Amino acid sequence: MTAVIVLSMISSNQGKIPTFIANFVWQLFGWGGLLVPIALGGTSFYLILWGMGQPPTIPRGRLAGTIGLFITFEAFASMTAARAGTIYLDVWSVAQDGLGGGYLGAATSGFFLNLFGTLGAAFTFFILGIVAAIFALEVTREDFTLFIQQIQDWRQYRLEAAANRVPIPAHKTLRGQPAVAQQSPLPLNGTPPPPINRRNQAAPTAAEATTNQPVVASRSTSSKPAPQPSTTNTNQPTTNHTPDPAWQLPLINEIMAPGTTQEVNNASIREQVGIIEHTLVSFGAPAKVVEINQGPSVTQFGVEPQFIEMRNGKRTKVKVGKIANLADDLALALSAQAIRIQAPVPGKGYVGIEVPNTDTAVVSLRDVIESRQYQKINSPLRIGLGQNVAGNPIAANLADMPHLLIAGTTGSGKSVCVNAIIACLLLQNTPETLKLVMVDPKRVELTGYNGIPHLAAPVIVDPDRVVGTLQWALREMDNRYQLFSQIGARNIIEFNKRLDRLPENRRTPLPYIVIIIDELADLMMLAPEETERGITRLAQMARATGIHMVIATQRPSVDVVTGLIKANFPARIAFAVASSTDSRVILDTTGAERLLGKGDMLFQSPDAAAPVRMQGCYVSEDELQDLIDYWRTARRFNLVRPELKPAGPRQLAPQPTQNGKPAPATPPTTPAPAKKPTTATSKPDPTAKPPLSTPAPTPPPTNGNVKLPEQRPLWAALEKFEEEKQQEELFEDDLMPDAILYIRKRQKASTSMLQRHFRIGYTRAARMMDALEDAEIIGPPTGTSKAREVLLPKPTPDELRNAKNNTPKAL
To answer: pTM higher than 0.85 for the full model?
Structure first.
């Protein structure tokens, strides 16, 4: 049709049909008839792609703006071609002659001319044309602001050029302006300036970071100096606890790589359809393939059960369970690795038979982030998961889950999924809006993120510190709830909107906190009760405070993923597992044992009735390293937090000596908790400074009736927890206070002495001796049969009197 219209409009020798088509187009659209073949050709190309199942995405706003711009052009054309004086008659006469905007332009212009007159209609069409052009070109407020800024820069260049009497080069334009040349003894090389890299403006070098000065990107490679920055430079750090606008998010197209496309093999699909239908008929379950969805790793065949005739002549439909039980027979017939049957598909009228593809396509995180499903989620905690069996991107909101449990065997794609979630959070959140707490007992998965400003503390690799981390999160949750109750907010979103009710020095928006635990099984083996209690309480109450958890494990057993944890983690991801029992532990249903591995997973959403199968996003090591390097170098002078800033040798709490005088301990090379003495006679030195990582608490500021809780950094809270834990471990044995008093009276200590005096076994006495040595109450072994030295003095008469009265002051 497009070719016929083009030939009818340009051919001189026309028949009746081409003449009729050409006159119809000219009279209907006028001068706009030249664009009709282009519009028809584009529509035809779109319909062809739509028939092939690969329609391109056309923004509705841009399409509506283009149509509006065309109608406005038609109306202007009719008003321009019309003569003055008899305007209403001339508009239609122009349309009859095939000029102006045709009948479309005549109808539009005639309507507005009747309402507003000539000048009013012209002004209306001018405004409508500008609005339509904005929609068609998708001009945003940032583009308009950048255009105004470029105009101002161009005017400033002209003023500086006039002041320095340097002519402006002829090739200078508004976009990509080079700096104004000044008189310099160095020759100009004449090379064009490089483009401005806006990422470098927020990433000063190490030398500039020490002076805390902003970085201004150079506009020329020659000796031409850049213009002086204004006083309102966004790279300068702000004060009064306001969010720093100098942080800039990384560009996705510079860090993430696009995925690969998958070719459709129609011949192979038709062959598989025939095998499936023939196999089902041979086993007495006739069915027909009614829909085919090809995804990155599997192809889903929608099978509709057919009718079978019974012996009594009645026709009954094939049961769904009969088709579901033929998974192994279909796998044998198709020579497939594993086949999963979803009976039935939620919301569909067929049974889904998922067959692995011969070639697996790579689903990149960039493709999911740029998809419409991801962009329509308005949340800073949105994450991209992958593509389903139909090839549609799947995105979710971590704030709605509100916690995520990931489980699967080694090599199934669990760590890649965790890295993809972290990459999504880092691509759309600055350190002011998000804080990450990472726990990695294996020391190799998450330690590469050390150095990014989003971390509340370095990646925790010591399992002994995990319980302290969970307790810090619980205290942070309680503090936030106290703040919410004081100002009448129900969640973190309402609190950040009511910051004007807080004191001026505390009007900083609360950031989201995401706790990521890479291996839950190791923590449950070390401290199962404390870990389960902390995770369960956070999962139950931390959603409103903006604290969310992502927990991964490679051993999905009932002693690791307990019932309490599962009850508070409705959002779960299951990768390939060894048996159906493991699948039931994760998802409460079977199916994960038939996954293919390498990112093939089942996602159970809190609002979905059944898990959805998808291929997870793949993030390469190079992409992760680029993202980590970006945040490590962005605003380097903001990376050092007060509680983590190294300040020379670290001083520990004083340790008692035999004479009762404190003596400073040797500073370790890495931060370690200080051990406190357990005696009443030893007193701390008032001149000794406290550890740098545990500063003395300051009284919280108040504003009327609003009392703000004390804020303790995560690193300081971990050290405080370890100190308290050491004190608790010392007195795990009930006989420990009496044993300390006894060896202080005797001024010697040995295992056999404790056995004889307290009538206990060797194991218990040896454990008490080890605890006394760790607390530095007794000396190390002498290597002979002699008793050990006691480092504390003899008890005073008051201590002995208190010990007889069974008071807490027995020591």
So the answer is: no
